[in-house]
Design brief:
Residues 1-82 form the Core-binding (CB) domain. By secondary structure, this protein is mainly alpha-helical. The protein has 13 helices and three strands; from the N terminus they run H-H-H-H-H-H-H-E-E-E-H-H-H-H-H-H.
Length: 295
């Protein structure tokens, strides 16, 4: 790692407070550009034509959304170098983002989520844990990274809330349903206390069979296996449960601002994608509430 990239990583982590996953992705994107440029050209001094050639190269095998993310990462990096007075101009400044269509997220029905949970073997240690994980993912609308980092000290069951550490280390309190609390408490009282827990995981809620912290990949695998067993012809991930949470709230009358707060979205525009999932609901709202609807 070059000195400028090391300084940039330090800046992102300590001064900008970006999430660890975001930091890893940003550095990986810089690594892609450096690999393309070769050892004879330092990434800090790349020119606009170098960046354009790189984007043209990756366009053959990366989606427009991924290209846009890489350009965003490069833009942040070169703006940092300008602040450090390492360079005078940002070579990404006049490069347009690739056009991309906004894909609607995959959503499960309530029956499909019930089917997934019904296939969990609840007479096993892992089954009890997995049942609680899926209940928390769907009933609280959490990101998978938020679930794996949930702590015992984040549970405020007397008040009916959990404390969640979201993107950029931003905290929010999310209501938790009675059903989810019941399953988490069952896991705690019947399964977790039997594990030989590693010291660094003593406050972590969901653990693997060796008493260590679960990984995001493990939860992806759990859902993929359940989806395969259920015969669902959908590309399902933990984020699918988060999308389903938001969609079902909207369908049942929740307002967009409340959903934004529950999901921890910084901007309401990120939450607005769920409006496209329920056009029939919006049509009904106009017919029901607009003063001229019955003219």
């Amino acid at each position: 790692m070059s000195d400028t990239i090391a300084q940039y990583a330090y800046y992102l982590r300590l001064e900008r407070g970006v999430a660890e996953n975001t930091l890893v992705n940003y550095l990986y994107d810089l690594e892609k550009l450096q690999h393309f440029l070769g050892s004879n050209c330092k990434i800090a001094y790349a020119q606009e034509h170098d960046i354009r050639s790189f984007i043209h190269f990756i366009a053959d095998f990366l989606a427009p959304s991924t290209q846009a993310r890489i350009l965003s990462a490069l833009n942040h990096y070169y703006n940092f170098l300008i602040l450090q007075q390492t360079i005078d101009q940002n070579p990404v400044a006049f490069i347009e983002l690739p056009k991309q269509s906004r894909k609607l997220p995959v959503v499960l029905t309530v029956d499909e989520i019930d089917l997934l949970q019904s296939l969990i073997k609840k007479d096993t240690h892992e089954g009890v844990r997995n049942d609680a994980i899926i209940e928390v993912l769907y009933s609280c609308g959490l990101r998978v990274s938020e679930v794996v980092h949930l702590k015992l000290s984040d549970l405020f069951f007397d008040e009916g809330y959990i404390k969640v550490l979201g993107k950029g280390d931003k905290q929010r309190f999310v209501p938790i349903t009675q059903s989810a609390m019941k399953k988490v408490l069952f896991y705690l009282n019947e399964i977790r206390f039997q594990l030989k827990i590693k010291k660094e995981a003593e406050d972590i809620l969901f653990l693997n069979r060796r008493g260590g912290q679960l990984t995001r990949a493990m939860i992806f695998t759990i859902l993929k296996n359940l989806s395969k067993m259920a015969g669902l012809n959908k590309n399902i991930s933990p984020h699918t449960l988060r999308h389903s949470f938001a969609t079902h709230l909207l369908e049942n009358g929740a307002d967009l601002r409340s959903i934004q707060m529950l999901l921890g979205h910084e901007s309401i525009t990120t939450t607005e994608i769920y409006l496209h999932l329920d056009r029939n609901k919006l049509k009904e709202e106009i017919e029901k509430f607009h003063p001229w609807s019955n003219k």
